[in-house]
C-alpha cells in the first residue's frame, strides 16, 4: 500500500463566534473533522492531517458575517495499487466469496480467487474451510491477499483481491467470543442507530453508575483501588489500562500545549500495569481543572465512541439486537468490563454465559428480551463473584433489570433515580443508586416540606406514596386531608426522608408486585350494567359488571385520549368508572405501582406484556331500550262497531293477542376469552387487518380480539409475536405445534375440526363429469396439515418455470432447447453485459462462472480469451474493459452444447438450488411459489448488502403477511405479499427495473387464476412492441391466460403475438 505525504487545499467557512484567540484551533479542528477519512480520487484516502501550512486571508461573506478561508494543508494519504499484498480483516462471507477491510479500504475476494482446497460450508456459519478443518475463513479472520484490480470513484475506492498464490491466505482466526450468527430469516434484520435522545440517556445511565450524576462528569478523577489505576472522565477511562492514555494522546493532538501533556511519558509506561501511579502525582487535580475545556471534552468523546460505543454497536449487529435498551446495556458493559484479550472479566465471557443460558442469541431466533435478561444475569453473577469493588456495581445491573420489567425497551424518558447517601471506607459520603422509576409523575419529601398549607386533595400526594405537609407523611393509598394522610401512614423500608436525597422518591428494589384484584367500589358505575334477567358474566373477569374482562399483565400502548392520564387512581374499578364517563374511551389500563389510570381510544394502540399492569376493554354499550307499547295506543285498533264477520269454523283461529308491554332485550354478556388450546391453529377466516404485531402473550391476543367487535376467535404465534384475529365462523381448526388458539365466549361460532388422521372418504356414487376442454386442473400442492416435506418440481413444472423466466428476460419462449442461450446485451443497469437464458452478468459474479465452467468442458472455446477481463470486472458493475467483442462471440454459440450445459450448471447452482433452500426455509409447497422464488433470484440476486436483493423482498413480505408459511401464514397470502413487495421494489428502483413489473403482474394473475400447481397450457399475450435505435423489436408482456381458449380479433396483427407454455 502506497502512502503519500501531500499538500492539498480546502475552503472552510467559520462562523463569527469563533473569531478570537482560538480561531486557529477551530480551523484545525474543523479541517480534521471534515477531511480525515474522506477519499481523494487522485491520492486515495486522507488518513491524517499533519498541519495547516497556510490559512490565507479570511473573506467575510456579506449578510452572514462568516469568513471563508482558503486553506493549504499537509496530510498523509494512502492508495492501493494492483499487485500489492495486504493484510485484511474479513467482514462477511458468502458463497460468492468474502469481503474484507484494510482500514477504510473494502476488498472483495471472489470464490474463484480462493484456492480449490477451500470449500464453502454453512453447517454452523458461512465460511470457507479446508477438508481437514485446519484453515478457516470466517468474519474476523485475518487474511493476506494480493490486489488484482481496483476501481476509484470520486468518494471511494474498491478493490478485488486474490489468495490463490503462494504465501497468501489465512493468518489468524478471531478470538473466542459470540459466534457470528447463522443466516436468520431472509432480510429480517436491519440495524438502526440510536436517536440523539436515546444516546444521551444511554450515556447518562452509565454516568449515574460511574459518578452518581446524570450530568456527564468530564472533570471526574479518582483512585478506586480496582487494579485499574486512576479512573477519570465521563466514560470511566483508566490509566492502568490503555484508554486513559488514548484520551490524553487525542487531547494533545487536538491541543498540543495542554496541562496533561506532561503526564504522557508516565501514562505510556503505566498503560496495562493496573494500580501503579509512578509519575502521576497531580494528575487528578489537573483533570478536575479541565472539566469545561472543549478540547479535553472532545478527546473524551472521540475515545469513548471509538473504544466503547462503536464496538457495542458492532456486538449488537452480531447478535441482531433491535431494542435501544439492549444497545445501551452493551455499551455500559463494555465501559465496565472491556473486551476480550483473554480477560475473564470481559464482555466476551458475559456473551458466552448468556448464549449458553438461553441456547442462542436473537440472531438464532431467541427472543431479544429473553436474551437481554440472560445477559444481565450473567453480568450480575460475574460482578458479584469477581471482587469486593466489582460486587458493589451490581445495582447497575438491577436498574437495567427493572427497566426491562417496566417495559422501557425503547429507552424513553423520563427516568427517575432514587439515590441514598452512604459513607465509604475512607469516610467520604458516596451516593448509591437505590431504585429507578420510569414514566411516572412523582414528588419528593423535600418538595412537600416547602408547603405552607395542609394538603387539601389527593392531587398533592405522590403517585406511589402520598406526601403531605411538613410532617412528611407517606400514604399507601388515598389522599391527604387536613395535613394528615387518610388511611394508615406507611414509610417504605429503604426510603430516606432525608431532604439531601436529590433524585426522587425511592421504592422496592425489585419489580413492583401485582396487587390482589381490587374490590368493586361502592359508588355506582356510570357504565350501564346488565339487568338482573341477563345471564351472569363469565366468572373469569374480576371486575364489576359492565367493566369488561380483567386482563392481567397486559398494557395498551399508545392512542391515549387527551387528558386521559388520571393520577391517584386506587383500583381498576375506579379506572373503569373514568372510562365509562367518556364515550370515546374504548380501552383502559391501570398501573397499580404508580396508581395511574390511562384512558385510550378504541383503536390505534399496541399490545405489550408488562408485569403487574392491568387492562380491560370497555364493553359495547347495550342497545337503547325499546319504548314499551303499553302506554301508547295500538297503531290500528279495531273499531267497536261494526264487528268483522266471524271466520270459518274450521280451523279455529287463535284470538288476536292483546297489546302487551314488550320487555327490552337484555344486552349480550361481554365477550370473554375461552381456554386457549395449545398447539392449535384456527386456519382461515382472518379479519381484514386482523394481523396484530408485537403481541407478547396469549392474554394480549385475547385483549385484541375483545376490542374488535367482529372478532370471534384468535390464534397466537409466540415465535413471531403475532396475533391473528378471526371471524366468528369459517375457520378450520388444525394441529400446528407452537401455536395457541381460542374461541370467544358469548360470540356465535361455527367450528370445523380437521382430523389429522381422517378416515378414507367413501367412493363417489358416480364418476365426476369430465372437465370442459381447457379447464384448469385442480392444484395439488400437498396436504397443508401434513408435516412439511419439500417436494421438487416435476420436469414439466421446471420447464414452465424456466420458460416463464425466459419470456420476461427475452420476450421469447419455446421448449427447453429453444431458450435464449445466445442472448447478450448491455442494459445499462450497473451489472455489465447480461447474457444467456438465465440472465448471467459480467458485472456480478455469475458471468465469469459460466465461462469458467464452459472452459472446463471445452478448454479451447471462443470465450476463454475473455477470462482475465471477466475476472477483473467481476463485482465492478458497468465496467467493460477487455470485453469488446464478447456479445458477438456469445451470439454465435446458441447451438454449442458445452456452452448450453455450462449455463444450466451455473443457473442451477446459483439460482435453482438457492431458490429450493429459500423454499425449504419458509416451507412452501406450491409450484407457483417455487417458480416465483427462482425468477426473483435470477432478477435480483441474493443479499450481499444490496437493497435490490431477494433478502429485502423477503423482509417486506414477511412484515406485510405477518410471517411465512413456516410460522402458519397461508401460503397464498404470503406469495401475494412477496409479489407486491417485489412489484414495489421494481417500480421504485430505476427506469430499467420499473419496466420489469410486468413479470410480477403475470405471476399475480396466475395466483388469481388459482394455478398454484403451475399447470399448462399457459398463454402469454405479447403486444405493442417498441423498436430500439438499432431497429430491434422489444415485445412487452400484456397479459397471461390459463386454462382457456383465446380468439384474437386480428391474428395477423404484426404487433401482437401469442406464446404458448404447454
TrEMBL record:
Chief place where the protein resides: nucleus
Protein localization: Nucleus
Signal sequence interval, chain numbering: none
Region (Disordered): 496-546, 616-685, 751-789
Pfam families reported for this sequence: Glyco_hydro_46, PAN_4, S1, SHS2_Rpb7-N
One Gene Ontology biological process: positive regulation of nuclear-transcribed mRNA poly(A) tail shortening
Keyword set includes Disulfide bond: yes
Domain of life, per lineage: Eukaryota
GO cellular component: extracellular region; P-body; RNA polymerase II, core complex
The keyword GTP-binding is annotated on this UniProt entry: no
Biased composition regions of type Pro residues, renumbered to the chain: 514-542, 620-670, 756-784
Family per similarity comment: Belongs to the eukaryotic RPB7/RPC8 RNA polymerase subunit family.
Protein name: DNA-directed RNA polymerase II subunit RPB7
Amino acid at each position: 500500500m502506497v502512502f503519500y505525504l501531500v499538500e492539498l487545499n480546502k475552503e472552510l467557512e467559520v462562523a463569527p463566534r469563533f473569531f478570537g484567540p482560538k480561531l486557529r484551533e477551530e480551523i484545525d479542528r474543523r479541517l480534521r473533522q471534515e477531511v480525515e477519512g474522506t477519499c481523494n480520487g487522485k491520492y486515495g484516502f486522507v488518513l491524517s492531517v499533519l498541519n495547516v501550512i497556510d490559512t490565507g486571508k479570511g473573506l467575510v461573506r456579506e449578510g452572514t458575517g462568516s469568513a471563508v478561508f482558503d486553506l493549504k494543508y499537509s496530510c498523509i494519504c494512502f492508495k492501493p495499487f494492483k499487485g500489492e499484498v495486504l493484510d485484511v480483516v474479513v467482514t462477511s462471507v458468502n458463497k460468492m466469496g468474502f469481503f474484507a477491510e484494510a482500514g477504510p479500504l473494502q476488498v472483495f475476494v471472489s470464490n474463484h480467487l480462493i484456492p480449490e482446497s477451500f470449500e464453502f460450508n454453512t453447517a454452523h456459519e458461512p465460511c470457507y474451510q479446508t477438508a481437514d478443518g485446519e484453515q478457516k475463513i470466517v468474519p474476523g479472520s485475518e487474511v493476506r491477499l494480493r490486489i488484482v484490480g481496483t476501481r476509484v470513484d470520486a468518494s471511494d475506492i474498491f478493490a478485488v483481491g486474490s489468495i490463490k498464490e503462494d504465501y497468501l491466505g489465512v493468518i489468524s482466526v478471531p478470538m473466542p467470543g459470540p459466534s457470528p450468527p447463522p443466516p436468520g430469516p431472509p432480510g429480517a434484520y436491519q440495524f438502526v442507530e440510536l436517536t440523539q435522545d436515546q444516546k444521551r440517556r444511554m450515556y447518562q445511565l452509565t454516568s449515574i453508575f460511574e459518578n452518581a450524576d446524570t450530568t456527564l462528569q468530564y472533570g471526574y478523577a479518582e483512585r478506586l483501588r480496582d487494579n485499574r489505576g486512576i479512573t477519570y472522565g465521563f466514560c470511566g477511562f483508566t490509566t492502568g489500562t490503555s484508554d486513559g492514555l488514548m484520551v490524553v494522546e487525542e487531547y494533545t493532538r487536538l491541543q498540543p500545549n495542554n496541562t496533561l501533556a506532561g503526564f504522557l511519558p508516565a501514562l505510556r509506561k503505566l498503560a496495562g500495569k493496573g494500580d501503579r501511579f509512578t509519575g502521576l502525582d497531580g494528575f487528578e487535580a489537573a483533570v478536575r481543572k479541565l472539566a469545561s475545556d472543549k478540547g479535553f471534552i472532545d478527546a473524551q468523546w472521540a475515545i469513548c465512541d471509538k473504544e466503547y460505543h462503536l464496538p457495542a454497536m458492532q456486538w449488537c449487529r452480531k447478535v441482531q439486537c433491535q431494542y435501544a435498551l439492549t444497545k445501551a446495556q452493551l455499551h455500559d458493559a463494555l465501559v465496565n468490563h472491556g473486551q476480550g484479550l483473554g480477560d475473564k472479566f470481559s464482555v466476551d465471557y458475559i456473551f458466552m454465559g448468556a448464549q449458553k443460558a438461553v441456547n442462542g442469541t436473537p440472531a438464532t431466533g431467541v427472543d431479544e428480551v429473553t436474551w437481554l435478561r440472560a445477559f444481565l444475569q450473567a453480568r450480575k453473577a460475574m460482578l458479584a463473584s469477581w471482587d469486593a469493588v466489582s460486587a458493589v456495581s451490581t445495582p447497575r445491573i438491577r436498574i437495567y433489570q427493572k427497566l426491562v420489567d417496566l417495559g422501557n425497551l425503547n429507552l424513553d424518558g423520563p427516568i427517575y433515580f432514587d439515590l441514598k447517601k452512604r459513607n465509604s471506607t475512607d469516610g467520604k459520603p458516596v451516593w448509591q443508586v437505590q431504585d429507578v422509576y420510569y414514566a411516572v409523575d412523582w414528588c419528593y419529601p423535600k418538595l412537600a416540606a416547602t408547603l405552607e398549607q395542609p394538603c387539601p386533595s389527593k392531587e398533592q400526594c405522590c403517585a406511589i406514596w402520598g406526601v403531605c405537609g411538613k410532617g412528611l407523611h407517606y400514604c399507601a393509598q388515598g389522599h391527604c386531608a387536613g395535613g394528615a394522610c387518610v388511611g394508615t401512614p406507611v414509610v417504605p423500608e429503604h426510603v430516606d426522608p432525608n431532604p439531601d436525597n436529590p433524585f426522587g422518591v425511592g421504592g422496592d428494589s425489585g419489580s413492583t408486585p401485582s396487587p390482589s384484584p381490587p374490590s368493586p367500589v361502592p359508588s355506582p358505575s356510570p357504565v350501564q350494567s346488565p339487568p338482573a334477567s341477563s345471564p351472569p358474566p363469565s366468572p373469569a373477569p374480576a371486575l364489576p359488571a359492565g367493566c369488561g374482562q380483567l386482563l392481567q399483565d397486559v398494557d395498551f400502548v399508545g392512542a391515549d385520549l387527551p387528558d386521559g392520564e388520571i393520577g391517584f387512581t386506587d383500583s381498576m374499578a375506579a379506572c373503569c368508572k373514568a372510562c365509562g364517563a367518556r364515550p370515546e374511551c374504548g380501552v383502559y389500563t391501570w398501573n397499580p405501582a404508580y396508581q395511574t389510570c390511562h384512558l385510550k381510544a378504541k383503536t390505534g394502540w399496541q399490545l405489550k406484556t408488562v408485569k403487574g399492569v392491568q387492562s380491560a376493554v370497555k364493553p359495547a354499550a347495550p342497545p337503547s331500550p325499546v319504548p314499551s307499547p303499553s302506554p301508547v295506543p295500538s297503531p290500528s285498533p279495531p273499531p267497536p262497531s261494526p264487528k268483522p264477520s266471524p271466520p270459518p269454523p274450521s280451523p279455529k283461529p287463535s284470538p288476536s293477542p292483546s297489546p302487551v308491554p314488550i320487555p327490552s332485550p337484555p344486552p349480550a354478556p361481554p365477550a370473554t376469552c375461552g381456554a386457549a388450546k395449545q398447539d392449535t391453529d384456527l386456519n382461515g377466516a382472518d379479519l381484514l387487518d386482523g394481523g396484530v404485531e408485537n403481541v407478547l402473550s396469549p392474554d394480549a391476543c385475547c385483549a385484541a380480539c375483545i376490542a374488535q367487535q367482529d372478532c370471534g376467535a384468535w390464534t397466537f404465534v409466540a415465535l413471531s409475536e403475532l396475533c391473528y384475529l378471526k371471524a366468528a365462523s369459517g375457520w378450520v381448526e388444525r394441529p400446528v405445534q407452537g401455536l395457541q388458539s381460542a374461541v370467544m365466549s358469548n360470540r356465535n361460532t361455527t367450528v370445523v375440526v380437521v382430523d389429522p388422521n381422517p378416515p378414507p372418504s367413501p367412493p363417489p356414487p358416480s364418476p365426476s363429469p369430465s372437465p370442459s376442454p381447457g379447464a384448469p386442473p385442480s392444484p395439488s400442492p400437498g396436504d397443508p396439515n401434513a408435516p412439511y416435506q419439500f417436494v421438487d418440481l416435476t420436469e414439466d413444472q421446471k420447464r414452465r418455470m424456466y420458460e416463464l423466466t425466459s419470456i420476461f428476460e427475452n420476450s421469447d419462449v419455446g421448449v427447453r432447447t429453444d431458450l435464449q442461450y445466445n442472448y447478450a446485451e448491455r442494459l445499462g443497469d450497473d451489472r455489465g453485459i447480461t447474457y444467456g437464458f438465465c440472465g448471467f452478468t459480467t458485472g456480478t459474479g455469475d458471468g465469469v462462472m459460466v465461462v469458467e465452467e464452459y472452459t472446463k468442458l471445452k478448454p479451447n472455446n471462443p470465450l476463454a480469451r475473455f477470462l482475465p477481463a471477466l475476472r477483473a470486472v467481476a463485482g465492478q458493475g458497468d465496467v467493460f474493459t477487455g470485453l469488446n467483442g464478447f456479445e458477438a462471440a456469445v451470439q454465435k454459440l446458441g447451438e454449442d452444447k458445452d456452452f448450453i450445459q455450462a449455463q444450466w450448471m451455473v443457473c442451477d447452482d446459483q439460482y435453482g438450488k438457492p431458490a429450493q433452500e429459500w423454499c425449504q426455509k419458509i416451507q412452501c409447497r406450491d409450484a407457483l411459489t417455487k417458480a416465483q422464488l427462482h425468477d426473483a433470484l435470477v432478477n435480483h440476486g441474493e443479499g450481499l448488502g444490496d437493497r435490490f436483493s431477494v433478502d429485502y423482498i423477503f423482509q417486506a413480505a414477511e412484515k406485510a403477511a405477518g410471517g411465512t408459511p413456516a410460522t402458519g401464514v397461508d401460503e397464498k397470502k404470503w406469495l401475494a405479499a412477496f409479489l407486491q413487495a417485489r412489484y414495489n421494489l421494481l417500480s421504485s428502483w430505476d427506469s430499467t427495473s420499473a419496466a420489469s413489473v410486468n413479470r410480477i403482474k403475470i405471476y399475480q394473475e396466475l395466483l388469481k387464476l388459482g394455478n398454484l400447481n403451475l399447470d399448462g397450457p399457459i398463454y402469454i399475450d405479447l403486444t405493442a412492441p417498441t423498436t430500439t435505435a438499432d431497429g430491434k423489436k422489444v415485445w412487452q408482456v400484456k397479459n397471461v391466460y390459463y386454462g382457456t381458449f383465446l380468439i384474437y380479433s386480428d391474428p395477423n396483427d404484426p404487433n401482437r403475438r401469442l406464446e404458448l407454455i404447454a
